[in-house]
Amino acid sequence: MIYIAPNIRLSDHEVEFNATLAQGPGGQNVNKVNTAIQLRFDINTSSLPREVKQRLLRMADTRISKEGVLVIKAKEERSQLRNKEEALERLKAIIRQALVVPKKRIATRPKKSSVRKRLDSKTKRGLIKQQRKPVTDD
Q: Which of 31, 46, 70, 106 has a Cα-to-Cα distance from 58 of 20 to 30 A?
């Protein structure tokens, strides 16, 4: 089981791991050992609540495909196990981000007095700048 929040868990079969060759640190092993991990998580078929799925799919994240599959690549570490843990942590962070319900925005308008103050200050500033101009005789 993958624990995300106190009331949200994913079963192990919902997440798919693929090991591939990684560029970067690893010395001679970099060309021989599959240390990079590619995590695939199908949002639509997951056991997440419907609202969380919808928020995940609406996210502007390039790692989420049009089909609703989240792909996370972890290749920073030299060990396959640590890359797997890193990919899982990233998945948890993304899902926790989708758990937060966005606040509804209430449209407001500025008060008449604040609009008046702003316009007065602009007029004053314009007069100050006008007085800086050189005096010309007509």
A: 106
